[in-house]
Amino acid sequence: MDSQQKDPRQGGHDPFRFPKWANTIRLPVTLAAALAPLYILGLLYLLFSPGATSVGYQPEQPVPYSHQLHAGQLGIDCRYCHTGVETGAAATLPPTSVCMNCHATVRTQSEKLQLVRESFATGMPIPWVRVHDLPDFVYFDHSAHVRRGVGCESCHGRVDKMEVVRQAEGLNMAWCLECHRDPVPHLRPEDAVTVMGYVPDEPQFELGRRLRDARHITPKTDCSTCHR
Amino acid sequence: MPRIMKSAAVVLTLLALIPVLMLVKARVTDSGRPRLSLVYDMDDQAKVKTQRAGALFADGRAMRPPPTGTVARDELVGQDRRRDGRVDTLWVETFPAPVTAATLERGRERYGVYCAPCHGLAGNGDGIVAKRAEALMEGTWVPPSNLVDAAIRARPVGHLYNTIRFGIRKMPAYGSQIGVDDRWAIVAYVRALQAAQAGSPSDLPPADLAALGPPPAPAAATTTATTTGTTGTTQQ
């Protein structure tokens, strides 16, 4: 190597040969080249994973409705407003008339409720921003899950602590399948489905297995279960 | 090694950290911006789904609201004591279907969801929403009735049913939130709440009354209750 490094014309550095110090960076450069694909794959993984794309979506709503107050402090059951949840595919956002059940007499002058009163007067719905939005090729049915004892909390998180609703789970297919393959961690007694922060009296896996066997819960994992 | 190479290596390493930090930030913070859809596919299709505005009509509704007076296919025309809770102007006095333990259980559950916020779990008008409205000193607020009051105990079941369906005074209508059978189940449960708090021994069937044993002497009621407590004859 030493004999080849002399430049016959200038007696110095030959631009077509690696300088001697290049030897010292061989290891770092090799490592960098080897790790580059891993780095890029890692970035793509982080970028595509629901933790980055979906979880934490918390849009501002047209009316500053607080679940923390209504469901948390006042303890109003989820089903008071989301009446469709036990009987239909959609949990249903309540019509404005349900808001007015109370707000016809409570906080009647509140500025925050201006849009609610307008909606009630005109019959046009409040333009709520959808938080939990599955792709249109997924046919999710709330009643099928709620009536088998999957708690609201399993998918929606601690809504009773949310001032503004926030997407707590990824709602991606792998996440759905996790529970379809093993629903035991999410099964509750019938009267505890809407309870927030439910703590079973017995270990969850015992309760879940008992409920699963008693109700013959065998979630399907074939494509047409959700994609129809 | 030229110095610039060292600096370049440091700068490149730092630059490579930026996307990582951005992604970490995206994962740990909440955002009001629409979620990232990297593979868009057919996530949002040009079709109308439940509770979504459609582009077909100017008001965004997918279907036209039915004209006033429209009758649904399975809707009954004319009188129906189960649906109306009354016949002509007379309230129905008996339940349209047998009341079973399952009915009461269903009623208890529905009562907890729709009624208890105002009327309270025991029906005494002390629900948490009522308490809060009073604390806020809302001028327009009317305290909910105590469902165990004699006046409400005296009402026919049809009247209670009608109250759930259409509301009464300041109480709003719950017909859109509670179905026909659930309304009757709630009425049955309200009757149970009333019986639990304002009933008398004479309401009991003779067999149950006999099981309770003789009533304690009124004068020594407290002492009798404590001494007979272990024998299981105290009244519930």
Separation of termini of chain A?
69 Å
Secondary structural class of chain B: mainly alpha
Number of helices of chain B: 9
- In percent, how helical is the residue content of chain A? 25-40%
Mean pLDDT of chain B: 82
Number of helices of chain A: 10
Helix content of chain B: 40-55%
Poorly predicted runs of chain B are: 220-236
Output mean pLDDT of chain A: 88
Q: How many β strands of chain B by DSSP?
A: 2
Superfamily at the CATH H level of the domain at 98-210 in chain B?
Answer: Cytochrome c-like domain
Report the β-strand fraction of chain A as a percent range. under 5%
Radius of gyration of chain B, whole Å: 31 Å
Note the overall shape of chain B: elongated
Quick take:
The complex is a heterodimer of chains A (228) and B (236). Chain A has 228 residues and is mostly helical.
Quickly list its features.
heterodimer, A: 228 residues, mainly alpha, 3 domains, 10 helices, B: 236 residues, Cytochrome Bc1 Complex, Chain D, domain 2, two-stranded antiparallel sheet, 9 helices, disordered C terminus
Description:
- The complex is a heterodimer of chains A (228) and B (236).
- Chain A is mainly alpha-helical and 228 residues long.
- Chain A folds into 3 domains: 16-48; 61-93 and 132-225, no CATH class; 94-127, no CATH class.
- Chain A is built from 10 helices and no strands.
- Chain A has helices at 26-48, 50-53, 67-73, 78-81, 96-103, 114-122, 142-146, 152-156, 173-181, 204-215.
- In chain A, α5 packs across α6.
- The longest helix of chain A has 23 residues, at 26-48.
- The radius of gyration of chain A is 29 Å and the shape is extended.
- By secondary structure, chain B is mainly alpha-helical.
- Chain B has a domain at 98-210: Cytochrome c-like domain (Cytochrome Bc1 Complex, Chain D, domain 2, Orthogonal Bundle).
- Chain B is 44% helix and 2% strand.
- Chain B has helices at residues 3-28, 81-84, 101-119, 128-135, 150-153, 157-166, 180-198, 206-212, 221-228, and strands at residues 86-87, 90-91.
- Chain B has a two-stranded antiparallel sheet.
- In chain B, a hairpin with a 2-residue loop joins β1 and β2.
- In chain B, α3 (101-119) packs across α7 and α6 crosses α7.
- The longest helix of chain B is centred in the N-terminal third of the chain and has 26 residues, at 3-28.
- Chain B is elongated.
- Chain B starts with a helix and ends in an 8-residue tail after the last helix.
- In chain B, 17% of the residues are buried.
- The chains are: A mainly alpha (228), B mainly alpha (236).
- Chains A and B meet through α1, α2 and α5 of A and α1, α3 and α4 of B.
